[in-house]
Amino acid sequence: MPLFDFSKDPRARIDRIRRKTLRMIMEASKSTYPEEFAAFLRAEEGVIRELVLLPGTVSGDSHAIFKMSMLPVDFTIVGTVHSHPSDTSLPSDADLQLFRGYGWVHMIAHYPYDTDCYTAYNGRGEIIELEVVD
Ligand code: ZN
């Protein structure tokens, strides 16, 4: 049972990501490997455009810990991205809990971090397609 109806919020319609932002995710994931990279996603008009690195966001060798208390009141932040050091972007139980609790779109990047090495999920943990745009 969702806390509220996500589909009624305009932020629920995020279906694109800038190629540049996707490249940044993969570069950051590569350089953090074998630890996990984690950041928040910023979107405008349905397009994920920016990574937001927050003080206190931890990347470690277990699943990434997002410190929600560090999150500013910022309605352009639409979700999270983190990397897996393995070759799967299947969400863990902790990931699914995070997805349900916060945000509209969540990306998991996986090894070896090519530009197609990721999966995007909605708040219910269902796979969503992101169109890559310039
Ligand atoms: Zn994970």
Quick gist of this model?
The protein is an alpha/beta fold and 134 residues long. 17% of the residues lie in helices and 30% in strands. The protein has one domain (14-133): Cytidine Deaminase, domain 2 (3-Layer(aba) Sandwich), CATH 3.40.140.10.
Kindly describe this structure.
It is a single chain. With 134 residues, this protein is α/β, with parallel strands linked by helices. It has helices at residues 19-32, 93-101; strands spanning 16-18, 38-44, 47-52, 77-84, 105-110, 118-122, 127-128, 131-133. It has a single domain, classed as Cytidine Deaminase, domain 2 (3-Layer(aba) Sandwich). The protein is built from two helices and eight strands. It has an eight-stranded mixed β-sheet with strand order 7-6-5-4-2-3-1-8, covered by helices on one side. The longest helix is centred in the first third of the chain and has 14 residues, at 19-32. Bound molecules: zinc ion.
The level-1 CATH class: Alpha Beta
Bound molecules: zinc ion
Largest sheet features: 8 strands, mixed
How confident is the prediction overall: mean pLDDT?
84
Q: Any idea what the shape is?
A: globular
Task: Count every helix, treating DSSP H or I runs of 4 or more residues as helices.
Answer: 2
Helical content stands at 10-25%
The total beta strand count reads 8
In the CATH classification, which architecture applies? Answer: 3-Layer(aba) Sandwich
Strand order of the largest sheet: 7-6-5-4-2-3-1-8
Strand coverage percent: 25-35%
Q: Show unreliable segments.
A: none
Pairing-aware structural class of the strands and helices? alpha/beta
CATH topology: Cytidine Deaminase, domain 2
State the order of secondary-structure elements, H for helix, E for strand. EHEEEHEEEE
